[in-house]
């Protein structure tokens, strides 16, 4: 188990470094991510290099038995870069420059930035690639975290090249973007600009490509550095830190280029759904490399500095959040950062070693956690343990949230609502792309899958045909990979699987409705008109209870499906609201509205019962989270009550056999309890672990 933090000794005088190593040992730290923002210290001027301090720090860490995840330091170019090479600066939508003075002020497509960053990486690699302390490489930092879209001239040139490589001829691009609309036909790639500030909506197909391009530019920066490290002979794992469900970067495309997935996660103590949201994030990053452990690369020991208000964690939450990562596949627990800064924007951010020193609640928590992690036995690799897969797709995210749709959709919020109904039941879930759906899952949930690629559609149909259960909902299977309607209406791919024909969206006015408005109507007026029409929600009956839906009430006609619940109000009262259809050896369910949380929970209850999937541990007290990782079951008590849980197994920390576990609030137990055939993760499914 790796345990440590970002380490920024360049912020401190040399006298502090020995104390750092001594206290790291006391805390149980065995690895640090070193020098992530140290470019200006390593290269104070273009032709001046200073590695002496870094040599000293690395040697001290090595002598102290602390391994180094060496940063390439390219995330914050020094002032001389911006002053000498203004073409490295990114631009906003209106073409105005972002200026230095913060961090991440570089244009990812800028050849000059790449040349300068590449030279830094080459020198670092050549110097340290064989150093025995260096066990891993940390490329850049949180690519795109602050600056995910660059509209500069460097981006313009790169975008034209990227599009030419994608489409070969401008005629094919015109087809893909549907440029006959609004006189947008291009005569050559040189006529294309990034989607800079425009009077009204940009072409949605072009926006989808722009999103693909911006994700690819960030990835190209990572790959450039990775290739330099490999060329210098690096044999250590190379990675960068992800940010969970981060919209600008399609991490599923990035994952094959990471030797190990590393992720940063900062649950908001004020978010009532923080446990659910963090569980989703951890399941997402685990699912990016099935069968492999991942690393929690940054979390906070206590408060952060970057939210409007920054309360600390409640007592015990640090252990509970850490356990959630381990439960869901992490083999490393790291923090931002080792020693709290004295100056700069992050001086109020908590650290392993607080500004107030070692005699603090945080230091005690950090040292206790270090000792507890060190006592853990070697953990099993996370298997493909889940029976349920939730489809979550970046291209769909980009497309479904474009403007000018029947209603505004917050894709991640919808995905989290569906995920939450499984999380609350402690049913384990993998988070996959539609193309990754296969027969090893029993139940697949695919919400709001507006953009459905041909391969994804085939995989979902095959899955049901092979005996799986599919649950999908409104605003699904609307467009192809170019964001075009397909011939033949909507639900063209999944209609036969669902036993449905789709007629109309039936958009409902929601509380957040608004937008630019057209034809002189202000958004307030549009909103008022919609509310006056009384179309804010819709109801349907399920199992004798009245339920409600939001966003849309679609008009679908059963062409083979059975209506399980019908709308009782709204534009399509009497029409199907929830349907079920036998297809091949499996079945497919459809909700024609987005159920509100209670209703969604009821729908999931019905489908779970029909599909036979089960929880990691049955009958857990409310507020207790359970996750399986091979033979290891982790139990976390997020409630305010002391709870008692019946479970047969061995306490993984003490090696003692247990039949029950008692957990205080925020208490955690790791129990080795192999899955029994016929229950969660049956023998047949376990055998399919890659
Ligand atoms: C991100 C960055 C770190 C630091 C933390 C603070 O994760 O990678 O450098 O700024 O946020 O929470």
Automatic annotation (TrEMBL):
Keywords: Glycosidase, Hydrolase. It catalyses: Hydrolysis of terminal non-reducing beta-D-galactose residues in beta-D-galactosides. InterPro entries: Beta_galactosidase_Trimer, Class_I_gatase-like, GH, Glyco_hydro_42, Glyco_hydro_42_N, Glyco_hydro_b. It comes from the Bacteria. The keyword RNA-binding does not apply. Its EC number is 3.2.1.23. Residues 386-608 form the Beta-galactosidase trimerisation domain. Residues 6-375 form the Glycoside hydrolase family 42 N-terminal domain. Signal peptide: none annotated. Gene3D superfamilies: 3.40.50.880, Glycosidases (3.20.20.80), Golgi alpha-mannosidase II (2.60.40.1180). The keyword DNA damage does not apply. CDD domains: A4_beta-galactosidase_middle_domain (cd03143). Pfam families: Glyco_hydro_42, Glyco_hydro_42M. It is an enzyme of class 3 (hydrolase). Belongs to the glycosyl hydrolase 42 family. This is Beta-galactosidase.
